[in-house]
Amino acid sequence: MKKAPLSVCIALLGAALAGAALPAGQKLATPAGLQVIHNPAGGKWGKTPAVSLQPVRVLGDVDSDDEAIAFHMPSDLAVDAQGRIYVLDSGNHRIQVFGPDGKFLKTIGRQGQGPGEFFMPNAIDFDAQGNLYVCESQAARLQAIAPDGKIAKTLKLTEGSVGDTRVLKNGGFVMTAGSGIGMARVTVGGSQEETLRPPLKAVDGEGKIVREFGLAADYGDMLINAMANRTLLAIDGSDNAYVVFPYQNRIEKYAPDGRLLWRADRPLAYAMEIKGKGEIKTEGGGGNQRSTLRMPDLTRCASGAAVDGKGRLWVATLVRQLRENERVNVSVSMSNDNGIVSANQKAQGAVDLRTTDAYKLEVYGPDGVLLGSLPVKTFVDGIFIKGDRLFLLDKLRGVQFHEFKIAG
Predict the structure, then answer these.
(1) Largest CA distance in the chain
(2) Residue 162 lies inside a defined structural domain of this protein
(3) Are 96 and 104 in contact (CB under 8 A)?
(4) Containing structural domain, residue 327
(5) What is the pTM for the complete model shown?
(6) What's the number of domains the chain is made of?
(7) Is 1 among the domain residues?
(8) CATH code of the domain containing 277
(9) Please, are residues 313 and 363 in contact by the beta-carbon 8 Å criterion?
(10) Could you read off the pLDDT of 38-94 as tens digits, one per residue?
(11) Distance CA 310, CA 33 (A)
């Protein structure tokens, strides 16, 4: 059995991982005239939030015998025009569809590399025509599934690595760079120099890059750069892109043409720091070569971002760092048997926990001003907003989505 390429291992392990300043050692250019908002603690609402969350239901249960709701490493969620809920059950290489009432309707896809088949899909989103786009970072492709269930289009994404993907009104896409924050040669003042690739890219309807945008912080280390510049992406109703950095105290808003509109930060109860560098080890040679990867140990401040119908940005923020007895690690094993790549992800650690006080939901106005925050009692590995419904993903413990109605 052949070992998977190191580049694939890095991408898979990176995908499994999920302060008043950026971590020490970074270099980040600040454009002249940029509006920077240093938000005070508490926000405009203070102790009286102008919104509330009303529990609706829970989708998924790691302990269930019902195959329909026994998710494995779910990563995304979408809602169609009829209110049907689509859960991207990434670890099971499928999409589970539920009615507006939460009842299971059908499964879309299965593991494979052909049309309508998936291998560890990482993002889903609908376009204006009701086509469901499914992004597979490892296969570097987008598949569009028409409302009748047929494959309407398949796009190969050959220009760099792919992370989260969101559909724009013009038929294009905004994508994060995933684990592919590497060096690129650019022309500056008539001469070429090396710089970090931007963390975002706009892609047209044929899968070609229109522009790369956003600012990557340079820590002088390949693995730290790849991890610290990961981004959480949210798109509003006007195709503005909101970017939250999980390992930097940095929130940014970009216009549809890629212009940086503002940058914001907020007080955190802990310092953003690099606690340990990563390492790549390669042993053996030829067909017996084996590589292992240990990612850097960085302080994390955010775990999800979404924009509501009023243009408010919701950010799942850590109130404190997880304690040792709350942590979960993900191990990834891969194999390549005659060109067929398979992977197994397993959560280890405090998988039996369901509640915590380590997270809150911060709400920002369209101008980057912190409005206030709401406490939550669950572990949060992602946040999704569709209409007046908000979904919090617990990916590694309960393996479920907590659905709420936004009031206010």
Answers:
(1) 63
(2) yes
(3) yes
(4) 6-407
(5) 0.89
(6) 1
(7) no
(8) 2.120.10.30
(9) yes
(10) 999 999 999 999 999 999 999 999 999 999 999 999 999 999 999 999 999 999 999
(11) 27
